[in-house]
Amino acid sequence: xxxxxxxxxxxxxxxxxxxxxxxxxxxxxxxxxxxxxxxxxxxxxxxxxxxxxxxxxxxxxxxxxxxxxxxxxxxxxxxxxxxxxxxxxxxxxxxxxxxxxxxxxxxxxxxxxxxxx
Amino acid sequence: xxxxxxxxxxxxxxxxxxxxxxxxxxxxxxxxxxxxxxxxxxxxxxxxxxxxxxxxxxxxxxxxxxxxxxxxxxxxxxxxxxxxxxxxxxxxxxxxxxxxxxxxxxxxxxxxxxxxxxxxxxxxxxxxxxxxxxxxxxxxxxxxxxxxxxxxxxxxxxxxxxxxxxxxxxxxxxxxxxxxxxxxxxxxxxxxxxxxxxxxxxxxxxxxxxxxxxxxxxxxxxxxxxxxxxxxxxxxxxxxxxxxxxxxxxxxxxxxxxxxxxxxxxxxxxxxxxxxxxxxxxxxxxxxxxxxxxxxxxxxxxxxxxxxxxxxxxxxxxxxxxxxxxxxxxxxxxxx
Lengths: 117, 336
Description:
The complex is a heterodimer.
Chain A: H1 2-8, H2 27-64, H3 70-109
Helix pairs in contact in A: 2-3
Chain B: H1 7-11, H2 15-33, E1 43-46, E2 49-50, H3 55-61, E3 68-73, H4 97-105, E4 108-113, H5 120-137, E5 144-150, H6 152-166, E6 175-181, H7 189-203, H8 207-216, H9 221-226, E7 259-266, H10 274-279, E8 308-312, H11 323-334
Parallel strand pairs in B: 3-4, 3-5, 5-6, 6-7, 7-8
Antiparallel strand pairs in B: 1-2, 1-4
Helix pairs in contact in B: 4-11, 5-6, 7-8
């Protein structure tokens, strides 16, 4: 249903008489897109990390019941958590850097008085 | 991109606008909450641009504006481009219910675009305010307003009328007719299914199914409102209650002095066909609840109102741009 409408039209058409070209993203919308991607990546990383930890906990919890190996299992779990946590943190860091970069690019593109749609 | 673009597409929403409209439908409440630049503000649109509500801009866009207004409100995830007939040739003037009613019955058409992810009640309130502003600056007196809503747009219209009556908005008295095209007054089956799926997934004590449930649950409040045809703030659904525990329809009166018309699509030629009974027009099922002045309750002997029309083999989206549907609207608009 939506496809029908989306195929019919085109992108990038400039407005004919004054105003902003509405078929392109305005700066305000581009900023919105950057924010949305940032939020999505951050939210996804959080959700995956939570799920990962919940799943990883299960075998460790099971192994910890075997008394002779409980201590080394706890150590291994801590290492695993440390490594995984580091990976998730680095994704968050890169996400933040990309967002800052995109915002700076948009700041550079945006001319004074050209901020809205 | 090598071919020159036909002029008609410049005036119509392109894929960027469609993508943003779909996004607003899915997560529009989140976008507004985050003050995201992609959130759509409700406004009248003309040739793909918001139309400032001033006498000057209205005169410029509508040189022959009349005392009769026709307001068109699209459905979930759409924009005003949904009204344009698909067989409009590039370069031709756009054809839609609005332009046809303008040409044949002298209505001045106004196309709205809005954030369909917001609660229906919020959009209803915004529409009531917008129509107030419109009437305040409209360069002529208005004595006839026709409202046409497609899908969720119909729910927003009912909400706006109700809130307009409460706030004694001057435009409400001038509403003569309201058309609901494929509007899920009873709630949309697909969203009921979505809610059931989320509830089931979140109930399973497994991190992965819970994750999928949580992702599904991110859909906007606008979508969730479709579950029960819910469109009044005070009737906001409490997610702890099960479907069926809310008698939402009781609280929403139909605008008393106006005539209401239901136009409903069906997937099959025969409305009694199992597929149509199950799926209606693919998204919205046939009306079956109590529709006040329109459709008597199932246990009543009264005949259904002549203000309901079924359109066999017209699917949900097609209801917004179909010659047969228009013909029916024109006939009802022209009747006394």
